[in-house]
Amino acid sequence: MARMEYFGTFPTTEYDIGKDNKTRTVTNIMKRVGIRGDFTKLLPTYYKRVLSVDQRPDTAADHIYGEAKQHWILMHMNGIVDPYYDWVVPYKEMDSYINAKYPNKVILFRDTHFTDSTYGTIDPAPLKRFFIKDEVIREYQSDGTVLDGVGTVVKFDPTLIQLTYSVTSGVFNNPEGSNNYVKGDDSGAVGLLTPSITIEREAIHHYENADGIEVGRLTTPTPLEILNEAFEHTRNETKREILSLRDVYITQFEEEFAEKINPNE
Asked: What is d(CA 245, CA 256) in angstroms, rounded to the nearest whole number?
């Protein structure tokens, strides 16, 4: 049985693509139809399935429904907006995916970052320890001598007490026994360097307690560190479980979608 072409149901509109005052009839991809949030609670309309690690939406649809073109149904059922990142990523592509998502460097400051009075000026807020996104940071020796490490702040997480930055020039380093620190050019924020300078994929994503509940860094007893790399692999595994619409409801699903996406037809 021939199935519905997804974009074939969309309305069309006139659009000046070339900006030459000549309009063309194009598919109106700005139209949107979503599934109501409680859809899966209304009827036993779906099955839960576990994907193999290399199944794309089209190959999964071909396996489940016998028609690759019905991939859009799976994506609607599972809230997939970007099939490259919302869908399960094949194992062989995970390494490149993680490197692309976490390309920077990270400094994990001491857990006394906001209270340490041995360096810098303690602001009552304490605003002097908050770095600003996109500001330049530089490395200094404890005597104020400027070193060659220069970078740009990507983000500062006050809960993790962790600074993510991109390297502009030089190398940030903290020789054993030294008290080198970084300072923001705009904020004036300061932070002691520690041996915990690492690539972003191996940096801490969050902390968990013994029950697997996300907690703060200073929680007692000492929480478990969950690294970015491990977090992405775990999350990717959860994407393998999807909902698939039962065959008996497919025709109704297609008809209602077509009616709502283009009610004038």
From this structure: 14
Write b or e for each residue in 171-199: b if 16 or more Cβ atoms lie within 10 A of its Cβ, otherwise e. Answer: ebebeeeeebbbbbeebbbbbbbeeebee
- What is the distance between the alpha carbons of residues 26 and 164, in angstroms, rounded to a whole number? 43
Single-letter amino acid, residue 26: V
One-letter amino acid of 60: A
- State the burial class of residue 153 (Cβ atoms within 10 Å of its Cβ: 0-12, 13-18, 19+): buried
Average pLDDT, the chain: 88
Which residues have CB under 8 Å from 128's CB, separation 6+? 120, 121, 122, 187, 188, 189, 190
Q: pTM surpassing 0.85?
A: no
Model confidence at 161, pLDDT cuts 50, 70, 90, reads: very high
Average pLDDT over residues 117-137: 75
Tokens of 227: 């690294």
